[in-house]
Amino acid sequence: MVTALPITASAFAPFGQLITAPDEVGGRSPTGGLSFDPNRPVVLSTTHARRVEEPVVVRELERHPHSSQTFLPLEVRRWIVIVSLTCNATGVKAFEVGPGRGVTIARGVWHHGLTVLDDDARFAVLMWKDGRTDDEFRPIDAIEVSCPAR
What we know:
3% helix; five-stranded antiparallel beta sheet; mainly beta; Jelly Rolls; 13 strands
């Protein structure tokens, strides 16, 4: 069983970048962390993610070798990001993100699909794609991920 930890920029750094809005009006927070193949066009899409029951059972990981992938919540309560630097169950880490924060999963990092808790949710997603395959999926030994109730 993997327990999701509250996300922090430093804890998530090996996997990508946490995106937060600045506290002061007019302030800017650099996002950086975007990585892509310059021969691929940027794609901004929206997605509607269905709520899942806990514990979340993870049987497969995916990665994108040619692009980072950014998730910006439009309507969400609690959500978790499940990531790994290796494609196996022992390397899996999970982070509770919550509303008002986005993440960029670094290019080539293994991750589980978008995982929302409590209610269905909507996100904007930013990637670089050219219609060729940039999605690699691999099965792993099943693990359960839980998120402490708040």
